[in-house]
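Can anyone check this?
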Amino acid sequence: MYNYTQHDLLITPEKYQMSQFQGKKFLGDYRKNRLKIISEAENLNNQELLNNLSQINDLRQFEKIFDSNKIVVKNFLSQLLITYIDTQSISYIDIFDKLLKKFENKKKIFSIYNDSFLEISPEYNDIENYVLFSLCCNIFYLFTGNLRYLNSALKVNDLIISINNHSYNFVFKKLLIISLQMELNNVKILCEKKGLD
């Protein structure tokens, strides 16, 4: 059994520190956990998933990144994805890394930060921010090969799955499925490199 999604991780965050690798059975349980969520999706490779992403133009409504010295997370993450869709490149990696560090420390993504990345909004329950963050982590991992992005994608997807309410709008459900499939592909490729296939 994959234990990391058995309770709501927004209420009781998982620390993940010093977690022991539990072998192939653990990887199998992890895979079943993810496939349960994306069972209605096609089995696509990363390039097909990224091509699928370009069909999602609804994110353009969130294009304004900075608003009077504050960072609205949904706008910022949407802009990262739009930039990827338009240019096949990643941008604002330094700002994204600050958000990643905040998530790693608190296991929460607040809706608004100031330009020093201090929370200025108490709201952290917007699941759409977590879905966008997960997708950005997977894309950044593909571009950089830096395991901290894959590590954060795994943690944030555990958090998303652990929340019992999966009533997202269509766009964010599709984004979540793309992100989960990318994560599974990334983990599979990493396992093959490490001889764990």
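Reply from J.R.: I decoded it. The beta strands are 70-72, 112-114.
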